Structure formats: structure tokens, C-alpha cells
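cron nightly-structures :: item 1 of 1
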Amino acid sequence: MKVLEERILNEGRCFEGGILKVDKFINHQMDPYLMKQIGIEFIKRFANEDINKIITIEASGIAPAVMLGYLMELPVVFAKKKKPSTMTDMLQTTVRSFTKQRDYNVIISKEYLTADDRVLFIDDFLAFGNTAKGIVDLCQQAGAQLLGMGFIIEKAFQHGREALLELGVPRIESLAIIESLDNCEIKLKKD
């Protein structure tokens, strides 16, 4: 996605420790037109999959997942990091946040993730794959079929893709792949 890559290079900011800040257009202030383009690209990449539900995790994955759900006319479920008082029967796992350096209990109601679901997971970043591993666990607990995972940005140097492939994730699509953030210089992977 050339438009996404250009935005990353022109508006993204790099911080020590492998952090890429794209909050100007993806995960704080959002560009709805870019989100629509991202949704369309994910549709192209997962067109042959028989998906009936899109899953994400709060908070930064919600915007691209909702846009994709809107375009595909599918329900979107987001895993919550805090248990609502009204939720009683749930699936639960623990994920480690790379950015915040802390663990979160992540939950989904058993009502919204079942063995009848054929799931596509959408998120803003793939780094070490910690969040995505939690989604794999939740899908396994529910007996849901995980058909693939889509990420807006993948930081290839943090090897999350490899960890997910080892877990048996059948398909991983990233719209922009960062090869390196060494010396706070953003280097994109070339096709």
C-alpha cells in the first residue's frame, strides 16, 4: 500500500527501543479515508476466505476492524482489557503489551466467539505477536476457526510473524512492513 507507506515515512516518528509512532493518522487521530483504503486492501487480500466475523482488540485495532466490518457487512467483536460488570460467561487470556510493557487480561464473551465462527483478526501493529497470540488462544478456547490475521504495520525485525506461523496461523497479511528502525530511521521492506 503505497499511500500507507508514504504516510509512515512522512508522518511517522521513531523512538528508541523499536517504537514507531503513527498516532497522527492511525491510532490517536485517525484518517477515515485512509482507514477505508486499508479496509479495501484487506478485502482484496482475504477475498477467498469464508469469514463470518472480524475480531480485534481494544483500542487501536477497533477503527480498521470496524471499517472492514462495515465494508464486508460482517460483525466486529473486540476483545476487552477490562471486564464489564455485565459480562459473566467469558473466554480469557493474558497478553503482554510491547508499548506499555505490562500484562493485560483480555476477555471476550462466549456469546460472541463460538465454534461456529470463521474469524479474521485485524490490528494496527504486529511486533512480537503477543496480542495476536492471545487471540489465537481465545479462538482455540472457543473452538472458532482462525482463518487469518491482518495488520496495518508489521515490524519485521521483532519477529512476530514467525511466532504466529509457529502457532499455526494460516495466513498473515501486513499492509506495510518495517524492516528496521535502527538509529531512528524508518526503513520499509521493498517488494
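cron nightly-structures :: done
The first strand starts at residue 13 and ends at 15.
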